[in-house]
Write a structure and sequence with these properties.
Length: about 400
């Protein structure tokens, strides 16, 4: 075989991709074992039938050929109107590129913000694809560490230090946050924005969970002074409308940048199928009611998990103010999140994501996805707590 490029062979950085426990759980399921999966951010409620009907009608009417690469005008207009209504920032279709999901938008944003070899900052803990996406864009990923006792909120001094040390070109943030559930307060967003202005960086704001706010309020940094011309906002219908497999999202940014990203899309994805865009347009037209319907189970399950945790004192939760996850601190067991997750899967056939899958800041934690029925989730969290208590007692007896 001819030699592969270093760009493609270095996407994982030569280390783990963070998905070992998830992959092992899927192998067990394929072998016929019953596993409770609390790993992936995949809704247990499927895409609404009305959206699927709209997709079917569009496909049957002939929207199965090439669609316009930037997105069909009606959908770009709808996304722009949605963003403007929610942020107060003037936004037109010229500020919108429709993408095959939020992941494609993240890649496009880094391609636009960074030249080959530039440093791109991101906050640790992070969604598992972030550093690989940055490497795929030929940039250098540098993580900004956070601390559990600070609810994993970033320290502006750490951002400034990293930006200056590495002459960074971009900063990637995610609020509401996956994996921690943190919702960045206004003060944090303002500090992040100031760091970007002071250090002349692009801010890439992953806001795919903006409809899942349990406590506090979502503030898009694009709405702050001096930020509209240096911010890319990544959005998606995956989480807000349970359309993960439809692969439909967008990126918002200044028109000259969007024009360049349209050139990138023409050379890579070549757009999104028209029937999926029509389904997305229909979904957005349903307004807040459908979005609240999708979010309600996760709001309820967050409370359920906190109630279960209140029954014991071995496992504690990082404040989960948004998104469909709860981050649990299991450091009392003496195990890493990875070892705890592997043992939990072996002994109880419950699959969770180790905190280490999301960076070093979350070591000794696990992420629990709130994506199974209430009774099964409650039973699983109780088992997790009991298992942690057994490990903690065993550790105490050993010493």
């Amino acid at each position: 075989m001819a030699k592969l490029s270093t760009r493609i062979t270095s996407i994982t950085g030569g280390g783990s991709d963070g998905w070992e426990v998830f992959n092992r759980a899927r192998q067990m399921i394929a072998a016929g074992e019953t596993v409770t999966e609390l790993t992936q951010g995949e809704h247990d409620i499927l895409t609404d039938d009305s959206i699927l009907d709209a997709m079917h009608r569009s496909a049957r009417s002939g929207q199965t050929g090439y669609a316009l690469v930037p997105g069909v005008p009606a959908l770009r207009d709808a996304v722009a109107a949605r963003v403007q209504a929610r942020t107060g920032v003037p936004t037109s279709a010229d500020n919108v590129l429709i993408t095959p999901g939020g992941q494609s938008a993240l890649f496009a944003a880094h391609m636009a913000a960074c030249s080959p070899g530039d440093t791109a900052l991101y906050i640790d803990p992070y969604y598992a694809t972030y550093p690989g996406t940055i490497r795929a864009a030929s940039a250098k990923p540098v993580a900004i560490q956070t601390r559990a006792r600070d609810a994993f909120l970033p320290d502006p001094e750490a951002i400034n230090a990293a930006a200056q040390t590495h002459a960074a070109r971009s900063l990637l943030v995610n609020s509401p946050n996956n994996p921690t559930g943190s919702v960045y307060p206004r003060e944090s967003i303002e500090q992040i924005a100031k760091s970007c202005v002071d250090n002349d960086m692009w801010l890439i704001s992953d806001e795919v969970y903006d409809t899942q706010i349990w406590k506090g309020a979502h503030l898009s940094p694009r709405a702050l002074p001096e930020m509209a011309d240096r911010t890319f906002v990544v959005g998606s219908l995956s989480k807000s409308h349970a359309m993960t497999g439809s692969r439909i999202g967008w990126i918002i940014g200044p028109k000259p940048a969007i024009d360049c990203m349209i050139d990138l899309a023409t050379s890579t994805t070549y757009g999104v199928p028209g029937y999926i865009q029509d389904a997305a347009l229909f979904a957005l037209a349903q307004g807040d009611a459908l979005e609240e319907q999708i979010a309600t189970p996760f709001r309820r399950r967050r409370t359920l998990v906190l109630d279960v945790l209140s029954e014991q004192n071995t496992v504690t939760a990082i404040p989960s103010n948004g998104a469909m996850y709860t981050m649990l601190d299991i450091r009392a067991t003496g195990l890493s999140g990875f070892d705890f997750a592997q043992a939990l899967l072996t002994e109880h056939k419950i699959a969770v994501m180790p905190g280490e899958s999301f960076g070093t800041s979350a070591a000794g934690h696990i992420r629990v996805a709130l994506t199974v029925a209430d009774d099964k989730l409650a039973a699983s969290v109780r088992t997790i707590c009991q298992f942690a208590e057994q490990l903690t007692q065993g550790r105490s007896n050993a010493t």
